[in-house]
Specification:
Helices cover 42% and strands 14% of the residues. By secondary structure, the protein is α/β, with parallel strands linked by helices.
Length: 477
């Protein structure tokens, strides 16, 4: 049995039991408490810390519920045998490409012993499971229709509900102009297939979403990068790239850009649409984070401002409800494009799950989404604020970062003092994961970058993760 070390804040939040649990996780993650290590008894730890036994019991219960420890009757509490963060390092960080890092992120999210700030993911503790499940029960009356193949275009009832929902956001669309998709990534893949052939050129931000990079690389497209500043794409450079390359489309994330967290200004949106009109450039507007604002609502959507039908609008419920729904939607007023998208959809999966789509419609009709957003926005705002405060406290001079007003991501930049992937792997050895910036960029520059996500970690875990990163960076710098 090893003596544990703690630094507890006995005044204010978070609760003592939660602090104890999180600090034990840190010591497990950094290898100080390897698998099968016996932890102090409840009485011993309570005496050591000067807290009640109930406080320690609650901490151990939280650790056990999360899979970090195991209680053996008659023997005590032990670090879980599933904790093997160092054993996975040989498989992690080998490829700093979009597909390689995507594989890492998904794998790390399920590894006991690593707390991951790598995935722009909502916290499953706040999923509206009970209310959504109640909606599934109400769908039972239409069981025959929803359990059979649904329309290629998606559940008719859901499309009606979505037409009403997007009208509140300034988009005029009838149900026939809406297509239900299995998440925004399927929409991006279908649009790319419809608009391009292998070797064609498309414009993307530098950096941009890993999933999109993976899709466009898989379709053998030539990717041209558009630089960003604090307001969005640099329009002068964008126009020169349009003139030089005649791209098939431009992929944009105006609201709470992934990975930077930037929200495109209204002036930049209007300028972008002017370029789209001048050069007849299609724009894919990916808006999966738009409803996750923490300070003030974002400017109007590109689709709402678009006078010439150049914008193809995409959104999904993965980030604002539950990723496992795999339900999103695409809006275009171009009938020929929509027909082509439906042909491509028919050739892949014959449409999505009708049961889930109908249950989503019932949930939206009942006001479930609005209630859920009112609940989660303050929670994620607090986590965003904790991240910003922790970075200000623990990161050394020379590190800069974006200040997201929504979404789940912040983008950090520091002088390139680490070898590619070195910071990523060193943090993993100490029990924390983030996303390395090299995967988002076409080539290395004079700086190192990485993405930190705050949605699925508690405030205490966020502080601990940033503190570890600060220590690593200070040691190297």
């Amino acid at each position: 049995m090893r003596m544990l070390t703690f630094d507890l804040n006995r005044h204010g939040k978070p609760s003592l039991y939660h602090q104890i649990a999180e600090q034990i996780k840190t010591q497990i993650g950094n290898g100080r408490l390897p698998a099968n290590t016996r932890l102090p008894t409840v009485r011993q730890l309570a005496d050591q810390l000067g807290v009640t036994r109930l406080t320690v019991q609650n901490a151990y219960a939280e650790l056990q519920a999360d899979g970090w420890v195991e209680a053996v009757v008659g023997r005590g509490t032990f670090v879980s045998r599933s904790v093997q963060p160092h054993a996975i390092l040989d498989k992690i960080g080998r490829r700093l490409t979009a597909d390689g890092v995507l594989d890492d992120i998904l794998q790390l999210d399920h590894v006991v012993g690593v707390r991951s700030m790598a995935l722009a993911h909502p916290d499953d503790a706040f999923f509206p499971i009970d209310e959504f499940w109640a909606g599934l029960n109400r769908v039972r009356g239409d069981a025959e229709s929803v359990m059979s193949y649904t329309s290629i275009q998606g559940d008719p009832q859901l499309r009606v509900v979505l037409a009403d929902m997007v009208r509140e956001e300034g988009i005029t669309a009838v149900p026939e102009q809406i297509m239900i998709i299995s998440g925004a990534m399927q929409g991006i893949a279908l649009i790319a297939q419809a608009h391009t052939r292998p070797g064609d050129t498309v414009l993307i931000d530098a950096p941009t979403f890993l999933g999109t990079l993976n899709i466009l690389h898989a379709q053998n497209l030539t990717l041209i990068n558009v630089p960003l500043d604090g307001e969005g794409p640099c329009l002068d450079t964008l126009e020169r790239l349009i003139q030089r390359h005649r791209p098939r489309f431009y992929y944009a994330i105006p609201n709470y850009h992934n990975p930077t967290g930037i929200c495109m200004s209204l002036a930049r949106r209007e300028g972008l649409l002017q370029l789209a009109q001048r050069y007849q450039l299609p724009i894919i507007e990916d808006d999966i984070y738009g409803k996750l604002y923490y300070d003030a609502p974002p400017p109007p959507l590109l689709k709402a401002l678009d006078p010439g039908d150049h914008v193809i609008y995409l959104s999904s419920f993965s980030k604002i409800l539950m990723p496992g729904l795999r339900t999103g939607y695409l809006i275009t007023h171009n009938d020929a494009l929509r027909s082509r998208l439906l042909e491509l959809r028919r050739a892949t999966d014959l449409g999505g799950p009708g049961l889930v789509q109908r249950a989503t419609a019932v949930f939206l009709q009942s006001g479930g989404l609005k209630r859920h957003l009112r609940k989660i926005r303050p929670i994620y705002k607090q986590r965003r604020d904790v991240l910003l405060e922790a970075m200000q406290t623990h990161l050394p001079h020379g590190v800069s970062w974006t200040r997201p007003s929504g979404g789940f991501s912040a983008w950090l930049t520091l002088p390139r003092v680490f070898a590619p992937g070195e910071l990523y792997r060193t943090a993993l050895q100490r029990g924390f994961a983030f996303t390395p910036g090299d995967a988002y960029l076409p080539h290395s520059d004079e700086n190192d970058h990485f993405r930190l996500c705050f949605g699925n970690q508690s405030p205490t875990a966020i502080r601990a993760g940033v503190k570890v990163l600060g220590q690593i960076i200070r040691e190297k710098m």
